[in-house]
Amino acid sequence: MNKMIITEARLFLRDPAGPIFAILLPLALLLGLGSIPGFGEPDPAMGGQRVIDTQLPGMMVILSVVTMALTALPATLVAYRENGVLRRMSTTPVSPVRLLVAQVVNNLAVAVVATVLLIVLGHLFLGVAVPRNLPAFTGVFALGTASVLGLGLLVAAVAPSSKVASGIGSLLMFPLLFVAGMWIPRELMPDLLRRIGDFLPLAPFGQAIRDTWAGHAPQPLHLAVMAVTVLATGALAARLFRWE
């Protein structure tokens, strides 16, 4: 199992697009946008917080997780199916399930590395406070990442080709990022749009990250939505996934 995880990690690192989009891009956006003077000023619409306090770093954490879960993960798994890798593995003592586990572990590891870098470098260069409720932040990060990875596995289960998988992932990613507050803070959205976002997978993840970063407890509704997403997507992905 360890060898498979290491092998998949090496394959990921061989393609520079993976580390660039999942780790370096969110970090560059945080440091670049965080250097804009207005982002460092208290915003009354956000309760007097600065954009760089929780909104910007929280959204960069989400961007890193989503990039891996909805683009890299489905495309890789479907490409393995297209190329017959999963079918050949199913005839050997090495179960294809191990490949799924290795992929999930590597995706989680990349998300953790990106998040740690965002917290550390954001604090050093922009004065962003580290998450004030670290235990709750860690729990929310794990639950939210699992929910998005579950969505990625569901895409991999139903997509007939790697190109279609990438297309479905992108089609899901951008609307979900929008309602999560990537481009417009949720505080500035209409009530109806905010309410809709509360019941979609990504907005609860983003809001819970922001809440725990600021030292508050996550909202029970958001935890429930993420937990239901994990269970529903996991069950559907297991039922629909095809090895060939």
Description:
A two-stranded antiparallel sheet has the order 1-2. Helix 3 packs antiparallel against helix 5, helix 3 runs parallel beside helix 6 and helix 6 (134-158) packs parallel to helix 10 (220-240). It contains ten helices and two strands; from the N terminus they run ααββαααααααα. The protein is mainly alpha-helical and 244 residues long.
Sum up the structure in keywords.
244 residues, two-stranded antiparallel sheet, globular
Strand proportion? under 5%
Largest sheet descriptor: 2 strands, antiparallel
The helix content, as a percent range, equals: over 70%
The main sheet orders its strands as 1-2
Q: Give the class from helix and strand content and strand pairing.
A: mainly alpha
Task: Give the C-alpha Rg.
Answer: 18 Å
Straight-line distance between termini: 22 Å
Task: Flag low-confidence runs.
Answer: none
Shape by Cα distribution? globular
Number of helices in the DSSP assignment: 10
Compressed to H and E, one letter per element, the order equals HHEEHHHHHHHH
Overall mean pLDDT: 88
Strand count = 2
